[in-house]
Amino acid sequence: MEASTLQNPVTMDEITALAKRRGFIFQSSEIYGGLNGFWDYGPLGAVLKRNVKDAWWRENVLLRDDVVPFDSSIIMHPLVWKASGHVDAFHDKLVDCKVCKHRFRFDHLKDPHQCPDCGSKDSFTEPRNFNLMMQTQVGPMEDTAARAYLRPETAQGIFVNFKNVYQTARKRPPFGIAQIGKSFRNEITPGNFTYRVREFEQAELEYFVPDDGKDLEAFREWVDRRKAWYSQYGVKPERLRFYELTEQERPHYAKAGIDVEYLFPWGWGELESIAHRGTYDLDAHMALSGKDLQYYDEASKTKYTPILIESSAGMDRTTLTMLIDAYEREKSVDPNGKETERTVLRFHPFIAPVQVAVFSLARNKPELVERARAIEAALRPLHRTQYDEGNIGQLYRRQDEIGTPFCVTVDYDTLEDGTVTVRERDSMRQERIAADALERFFGVQLLGSAPH
Ligand code: GAP
Q1: Predicted local distance difference test score (pLDDT) of residue 5
Q2: E strand segments, 315-418
Q3: Residue 89 CB neighbours (<10 A)
């Protein structure tokens, strides 16, 4: 489908308002006016993002016997970034408006002559390179020898440890090393909520394959796996595309590259890049460190540099995607026949921050409250649960807005016959179920709904 014929009907205003109202995402340091490019995840957002990371980890590490986990430090030897090319080439071009003094990323300007903020014409300085790496200092001396960088990607920690990992984990290519962790980029113009930020998390899988002519096949297999992952978690296929980079768009050493893009309310934006990187990264570290990072094959007594297939996904962007993609406003009819509108987040149950909410019909009836609390406590070790009480209509509305797949209501009949009302989020269908049967019911509905 053509991008021009598509649109995402949700607005960013609706998403940011909901994120704030329900405690998904807050501006960082809000009481001091915020800090551009930094965000905090509230109680629900923290769980949502953790679930997204768990979903990635489950698929790419837990369910594979050819991928091992890794966790490298954020600050590494500065020569790592020299070898990787980040010191010399990790630049964006920036310009300043000489009239209003605002700063812009040159390639983001719609009109390279006119300032989008103050409207002045030909007021820009010459474009100049701006290195995106964040700097810090290591130790008590403030000289250049102490300068270090916060990593702009997690991948380099994996490359420099390639030998340590394959030897200790006793792996031979094809095999992968995966890590999820924070990265930092001093973006010139952060924006679009949590889409372009200065501190973010990446989930990176570095898959090393032998040079046996099957490397492009391995690349395609990873593209297919990543496609299947987005689809398993319910991302709308018409809002997702896999853009194949042309030879001109790829780095000279890359044989193939694909950008995974989502149709955000402002247009298509990159979620992940999947790249065939040849032997570039290991070669670069061998050249500068003088250390051997080749794979030594005991069986054939030969040595070679494996080819790298990389899948690098942004977890903040994926979390934002899940939020936007799940968001719907729809008309519905309440139990009294009145037409109302509801906001609902149709999260996949694996991703939903709360999976089962248990309510007591009344606040001031100790028998109901006790019973509902006991049911919630029994389900808590098995699922992500929440207890609440009061006006059931309002409680449903709140749970719909945070994407809870099931609500359980304890009422007076519960005390008589031991049954509760279970209400399903998407269909809003309600059924009476014996409280004793809830564990089994949710075992099938929620655990059975995990993608594997
Ligand atoms: N190791 C390869 C690499 O880092 P990249 O395309 O620069 O590749 C991978 O980054 C992913 O990291 C992007 O697709 C995006 O999801 C995320 N990412 C990069 N810069 C980001 C930023 N400023 N804010 C949020 N996410 C970002």
Answers
A1: 55
A2: 327-333, 339-345, 356-360, 385-389, 406-410
A3: 9
Give the Cα separation of 197 and 398 in Å (integer).
Answer: 29
Q: Whose CA is nearest to atom 6 of ligand 1?
A: 273
Contacts with 357 (C-beta within 8 Å, 6 or more apart), sequence order: 385, 386, 387, 388, 395, 399, 404, 406, 407, 408
User: Atom 12 (ligand 1): residue with closest C-alpha?
Assistant: 314
Angstrom distance (rounded) from CA 353 to CA 46:
8
- Give the per-residue pLDDT at 305: 98
CA–CA separation, 164 and 27 (whole Å):
40
Long-range contacts of 291-295 (CB under 8 A, 24+ apart): 291/163, 292/163, 293/159, 293/160, 293/162, 293/163, 295/166, 295/172, 295/173, 295/208, 295/210
pLDDT of residue 254: 93
**428 is written with which tokens?**
């809003």
Residues β-bridged to residue 266: none
Can you give the pLDDT at residue 340?
83
pLDDT of residue 448: 72
Q: Which parts of the chain register pLDDT below 70? A: 1-6, 335, 449-452
Pocket of ligand 1 (CB under 6 A): 153, 155, 185, 187, 196-197, 200, 202, 204, 270-273, 312-314, 316-317
Q: Name the pTM for this structure.
A: 0.95
pLDDT tens per residue across span 323-348: 999 999 998 777 678 888 899 999 99
Q: Are 448 and 440 in contact (CB under 8 A)?
A: no
Q: How many CB atoms lie within 10 A of CB 57?
A: 17
Which segments within 185-233 are labelled E, that is strand? 199-209
Beta strands in 28-73, from DSSP E residues, in sequence order: 39-41, 67-69
Report how far ligand 1's centroid is from the alpha carbon of 443 (Å).
36
Going from the C-alpha of 272 to that of each of 55, 144, 230, 293, the distances in angstroms are 15, 34, 11, 27
DSSP reduced 3-state for 431: strand
- Specify the 3-state DSSP secondary structure of 308: strand
